[in-house]
Amino acid sequence: IRYSIPEELTRGAFVGNIAKDLGTDVAKLAAANLQVLSDSDSQYFSVNVNTGVIMVSERIDREQLCGQNPRCFLHLKLAIENPVEFYRIEVEILDINDNPPEFPSDEVSLRIYELASLGARFPIQPAQDPDVGTNTLQTYHLSANENFNLNVKARTDGGKFPELVLERALDRELRAFHHLVLTAEDGGSPPKSSKTRITIQVLDANDNHPVFDRPSYGARLVENSPLGTLVVKLNATDVDEGPNGDIRYSLSSHNSAALRQIFAIDEQTGEIRVQGNLDFEEATVYEIEVEAKDMGSPTMEEHCSVVVEITDVNDNAPEVILTSFSSSLSEDAPPGTVVAVIHVRDRDSGEQGKVQCHVSPDLPFQLRKDYEHQYSLLTSTHLDREHVAYYNITVSASDLGSPPLSRHTILPIALADVNDNAPQFEQASYEVLVAENNPVGSVLVTVSAADPDSEQNSRLSYSILRAGGTDPGLDPTRYLSIHPTSGQVSAKLPFDYEQTSYLQFHVEVSDGGSPALRNRTLVHIFIVDQNDNAPRVHFPRAGEDSATQFRISPTTTPPALITKVVAIDADSGRNAWLSYHLVEATDPGLFSVALRSGEIRIMRALQETDASAHELLVVIRDAGEPPLSTAITLVVLVEEKGPEALQGSEARATDGGGLPTITLYLIVSLVLISTVSLVGLAALGVRCL
């Protein structure tokens, strides 16, 4: 059940009839033991159980209960027994215009300078009205005057604030005080209002401002001027007297913080001096805003500007910036290959900012000017990593200032290898003397080649090839092997001079490039004879452990040839030089042996007292070191079996039958050895030429 009543009703004022609104008999309400329960601490209402009427039991002040809330409610509960039932009653308290607007004070004092600008606003503390709706504060009224108008500002929450607006200039000399009345009025019926008196004191103003002797000043400074350098001295005057004519200089707040760090002003003298670094490259012109204030109250000020032009000096070296750069370059790069793109700049101006670049003319590189401030570093000739593998190119940049400034930048460039060099042997050919009967696996010669390329392109591999013009049946790989990386040529079999006295073959070396490059060298191996063969007797022939018998007549006369021992040695040279020695004889003085020919002759006539059989031990020895020898035993029988001449002739005939064949063998052997030696020497000479 809802009821609406105005605030401030007297006690006992009628609110509503419960019995009527519930549609029940009053007697039943009395019998049901009706009770009224309130949600608030105060019991603002009561119920007459005899009549069922709700009445006001206490004074209700809406502003105290709900403040500025536009709607205000009080809530009651009705309890009825037999059966138990509850009813909720809501009583809306309506506002009445029972409060006038109230100003915080009855008097307001304002102090306004006489030179306050027209349109200036001066807020007044607003009046407060606790009523709501139309009963609250609605408007203000200002008493009539010549200088001020009233402006009321409305807030979004409904509040209204009065402001005095200066419409006509004040003049303290004409009127020092102004008295106004401000009235606040609400919208009640009838309306309520209140007033406050406003007293305005017009303050004397500092009505003469300082004046500079010039509206603007100019100065010119060289960049990097020392600290404390005087820029300009300002001069301002104020016709006022006393503090109103006392002037203080300062840099305006309009100046940037950076400018304040560069310049400072003396507040007494107006001298502007340098206190920071002047850099033409950061700023060419500085415009300083200066203000001059007098000491009046309120102060008056005047502004002027100081334009400072900065003159450039050559204080910045050129800068070299690599826009593009490759630190590795293939050695087969053609001339004109771009290695780097260089950007140069100089923060100075004019001629001092123009930059020239160059590199050393001794290097295979050159600079090409693409356009202003950009150069390209190019190769000027063919490159050879094996000649120079690494370059430190110094790019020098200098400006046209006086004196000029320069900067040097080093560009390291490494040349990447290409396989452009075939391996080269240290010798065009190798000659090796190898003693026969050499041990298997012994190193005969080491061939060595070099490749000026690098890494894989310089990894060498050796192999043996058959030399042209050699005996097809004489395969060098049968006798020799070569280590593929060290080049050591080793023997796979021992050499036999008597079978092979000379061996010729090629060694080929190839690098690891792609494609691989190759080279060859010729190796001559001369087998040196060793004294490994003892002399062998060809005549007279005799079996092992047996002696050869010869018969001579007792009448044989010296120096008759008895026989000739013929031996040969398969070795050569000194090892084949044979000598014959009579080591033992039955009669040492009867026979002799020729040292070189091996002829055995009788040295004296035979006597009857001489033995009938003479045993001769002949040793054949070569000239080797150590010498080898062979021995033969001859038995000479003295018998009278025929005429002496016959015996002699038989001996000679027998000797002559064996000599021609042996001599022929010796001659043929000597010719063959001489021919092979001459052919070998001729081939070596041709190869050397």
UniProtKB/TrEMBL annotation:
PROSITE patterns tied to this protein: CADHERIN_1, CADHERIN_2
GO MF annotations, alphabetized: calcium ion binding
Pfam families (UniProt xref): Cadherin (PF00028), Cadherin_2 (PF08266)
Membrane topology: Single-pass type I membrane protein
The keyword Transmembrane helix is assigned to this record: yes
Segments crossing the lipid bilayer: 662-686
Stored PANTHER family: CADHERIN-87A (PTHR24028), PROTOCADHERIN GAMMA SUBFAMILY C, 4 (PTHR24028:SF331)
Name under which the protein is recorded: Protocadherin gamma-C3
Any one biological process term the GO annotation gives: homophilic cell adhesion via plasma membrane adhesion molecules
Residues spanning the signal sequence: none
Locations listed in the record: Cell membrane
